[in-house]
Structures are given as structure tokens and as C-alpha cells.
Amino acid sequence: MWNHTRITELFGIKYPVLQGPMGGGFSTPELLAAVSNAGGLGSLGAYTLIPEQILETNKIIKTKTDKPYNINLWISDVDESLTDYPVESLQKVKALFKPYYDELGIPLPDLDIKIPSKFLKQVEVLFEIRPKVFSFIFGIPSKEILDECHRLGIKTVGAATTLDEALALEEANVDAIVAAGFEAGGHRPSFLKPANESLTGTFSLIQQLKAKIKTPIIAAGGIADGKGIAAALTLGADAVQLGTAFLVTDESNATPLHKAKLFSEETKYTVLSKSLTGRMGRMIRNRISEEIKFETPVLPFPLQTRLIGPLREAAMAQGKTDMINFWSGQNAVNLKYTKTDELMTALILETDQILNR
Ligand SMILES: Cc1cc2nc3c(=O)[nH]c(=O)nc-3n(C[C@H](O)[C@H](O)[C@H](O)COP(=O)(O)O)c2cc1C
């Protein structure tokens, strides 16, 4: 049976279908529960949440499902270059964005460069909650954290954008590895080399990992239906992780406009840009991603998100949606479903028809 894999065994789930965590509030308890209740693995992207919010959200999750689920954090949630970031550089980047602010008729924000990392405090509540799965991106947690997860029975999942990153994760003894292909929506979670030097597609990455590592593999990026799931499993993945396909469902917290964009012709043109957040991520192309090229310095993550925040809000209020970042993977063209349970049923049925015939 296609649906019995090392991952279903490891996580105690029925189908090797994972809802990708989507930080910044996109993945909700409703979405997570709908996926876990359908036999997959629902996830909460929690990297922007303070510990109290994680505990609170977890309480809500518990009222909606008693099945296994995943909580996801970012190992690196603040760029190192933010320490002692020069005021002159800050002024330069602000000047770069001033024309957009002027066009919207709003003042540039005052920015405080002191942004502490939340990660270690978030991990403390993770140990309290003990989700079945803890997935993470942008690095590898310390040995102490991984050991504690193993002691508490929390399965650990790291993300690799290259074979070298997968080898490093295997060396650290994580339980599973996400092969994060460049098709994927959202940030590119590279940690050994810069993201723009770590651009491997999902199909190649699955096969590279399959050849060189023993750790179970979760394929992510560009998978939106049963055909994609069957292909990834055939190439050696033990499970798949879908993000964009869940972003358009009623249960996700994406705005109605964002969902409409994902069903529009505009999704034909996604780009990898760092100009909206300071870290490279895949989104529908927009004026800022087009006009501020990759070579142009912007603020480190997450300071750039604080520069873009007021601009985004004003652009939204004034209907200037070409200045807004709408996250999207490369395969939104194939999206059909807006209800999570219908999407899950279709994914399982279609994979079943292909792999069990
Ligand atoms: C809006 C958005 C936010 C995301 N945030 C996270 C995150 O916080 N942590 C993470 O591990 N992956 C994150 N991802 C990646 C997804 O979990 C998933 O791996 C990816 O979307 C799969 O590719 P696809 O979009 O082509 O399906 C995000 C993706 C999107 C679209």
C-alpha cells in the first residue's frame, strides 16, 4: 500500500500527506485539525508567535483534534547582520523605499534595529506541549534540544535545500528531512550556503537525497495533486508536504485577495525575491520584487518586514495590490479545492488510483 511508509509509521498517521507549516499566521488550528483529522499531518507555523501565543493556540488545537500534528519554528529568526547594523545602511534602504511611501502618501516608519530572537523561549513551550512532530527550518537545533526532543518522544524534522544540508541534518540525527525544492512557496530555508546558491528543484533533490541519505524524506515544492504525490513517492520520498494548495483553502488565514490571486492568471509568474522580507522567498511577482533586484541591498530579516509592514497596509487600503507580496509556489495553476477536507479526499483518492492500479 502506497500509504504505508516510514513516515506514516514514524508519525503515527494514516497517509504520508503533510500540510506544510505556514508561519506569519497563515496556518490556523482549523487547517491543522482538518488535515490531521483526515489522516494526514497538520502543521502550525509558529515562528512569529511569542511563547504564550503558542500555548494558547495549542489549547485551541487540542479542542479540534486528538490526532498527531506538527509545530514548526525557525532556528534562525533574526539575521546575524542585524547586530550592529550601520545607521547609514538603514538610511540608504529607507531612501530606496521612499518613492513607494510617497506614492501612498504615508511617512517612512522609525525602525528599531534591536530585534531579539524568540527561538529559545519558543522551544521551552514546545517541550511543555510535546507535539508529535517538531519541524524546523533555517538551521539545525543544538544537540541538547534534539536530545531533549528524543527523550520526550517528539519527532524532529529538518529542512534541506541541498544535499549538503541533508547530510548535515542526518549527521545531527534528525528523524526526517524535508527536501525543499525551489518550486515551493514561501521562504527558501537554506542554511549552509546563501539561498540563491541553493536552488535545486524538488525532483532532483529527492533523488539526490535518496541516493545519499538513509533518513526518511519528505518532498516539498510544486506538489498540488495526486499525480505530484505519486511522482514524489515513486522517486523515493516517504511523504509529501504541500503548502500553496492549503493556502487557498477556507481554513487558511490568507486574505480573500491572496486566495483570489492564487486562482488568477498571475500565478503563472512567481519569483524568488528578498526585497519584501530580507530573505529570499517565492511569491507572485509584484512591483517591488521586479523593481528592487536581488543585487540591491535591503535590510536584514526581519527588519525589512518592519519596513514593508506599513507600506503593505496602506497599499492594501488604497487598492494598490501590485505593491503587495502574495506568497505562492510554482504550481498554483493546478489548484482546484477551497475546502481542506475535499482537498485531502481528492489527494488520497487520486494517489490511490495511480499507485494501486
Ligand atoms: C505562505 C507560506 C508560508 C510558509 N511558512 C513556512 C514556515 O514558517 N516554516 C516552514 O517550514 N515552511 C514554510 N512554508 C513552506 C511550506 O511549509 C511548504 O514546504 C511549501 O509551501 C511547499 O511548497 P508548495 O508551496 O509548492 O506546495 C511556507 C509556505 C508558504 C506558501
* CATH architecture level-2 label of the domain at 6-78 and 116-250 and 336-355: Alpha-Beta Barrel
User: Helix tally?
Assistant: 14
| Largest sheet strand order | 1-9-8-6-5-4-3-2
> Main sheet?
8 strands, parallel
Bound ligands, named by name, code or SMILES: flavin mononucleotide
Averaged pLDDT = 98
The first-level CATH class of the domain at 6-78 and 116-250 and 336-355 is given as Alpha Beta
Question: Can you describe what's shown?
Answer:
- 40% of the residues lie in helices and 14% in strands.
- The chain is α/β, with parallel strands linked by helices and 357 residues long.
- It has a domain at 6-78 and 116-250 and 336-355: Aldolase class I (TIM Barrel, Alpha-Beta Barrel).
- The protein is globular, with a radius of gyration of 20 Å.
- It starts with 5 loop residues before the first helix and ends with a helix.
- The mean pLDDT is 98.
- Residues 20-23, 26, 45, 47, 72, 135, 137, 159, 183-186, 220-223, 241-245, 247, 327, 329, 331 line the site of flavin mononucleotide (FMN).
List keywords for this structure.
357 residues; alpha/beta; TIM Barrel; eight-stranded parallel beta sheet; four-stranded antiparallel beta sheet; 14 helices; 12 strands; 14% strand; globular; binds flavin mononucleotide
Task: Give the gist of this structure.
With 357 residues, the protein is of the alpha/beta class.
